[in-house]
Request: fold
Amino acid sequence: MFNWDDVRFFLAVQRGGSLAKAGAALRLDATTVGRRLSNLEAQLGARLFDRTSRGFVLTAAGLRLLPRAEGIEREALALDLDLSGEDQKLAGCVRVTATEMISTRFIAPYLARFHQRYPGICLQLQCTNRDVDLARREADIALRLARPWQDDIVVKKLMSIELGLFASADYVERHGMPTPGALAGHCFILFADTRPFERENAWLHEHVGEGEVVLRSDSVSSIMSATVGGLGIALLPTHVAERTPGLVRTPLEGAPEPRIVWQAVHRDLAGAARIRVVLDFLGHLLT
Reply:
């Protein structure tokens, strides 16, 4: 029989890939994490990780343990919520993950209103393009631009984000308004070559033609600021760009398909009172 508490050390190492990162996540030193992991391996009589130059990699035994360890974690979290009654209180922390643009433009300006109504709830807003793992409780609620398909995730379709090509009035004054088939000499701002922007970048590469790429960024806010500053032409959310002073929409034809914002929450958390009010708040803002 092994110590159930050691399971969280196993999961932290698996997720972090090193003792140092696991220790940071658990707020413990790496030595303690290493000792608890060694204890678990000794109790099970199996090596759970190979120590490689790339970090800790699961062995066959570790791969067999992983789904069971995650199940233990889920049950422990559910039991804690059930026995503490926290799931029925309008209090506590709710972690929301969303892209930088959604966070800054659509959520943050309205948080004062939420706090006035629910002063006992503290929102933790994580701005990232990464798809965090809700099953592992990396966040409570996720707003994503790609639909999650996991069976244990409750998904709701929210708003559509339409995109268009914009430039600043200053840029147009200096370079002229771009027209289809006459893009030589024009400057374009593209997204970074990362998975979340693959579709938009493919469309841009197809349509900018002779234009010059002068900047790439994974931050839509940075792209917006550079466009307002006159650096070049960029593909931006029309809802935001059309309300930004100094930006004008170009007559270049077409645009990628609109992006859908999906709201996602783990099924085990969907019924908690504090989660429900945040889901309702976000749904109201983004529909």
Remarks:
- The first strand starts at residue 49 and ends at 52.
- The two ends are 51 Å apart (CA to CA).
- Residues 130 and 196 are 8 Å apart (CA to CA).
- The chain has three domains: 4-84, 86-159+260-285, 163-257.
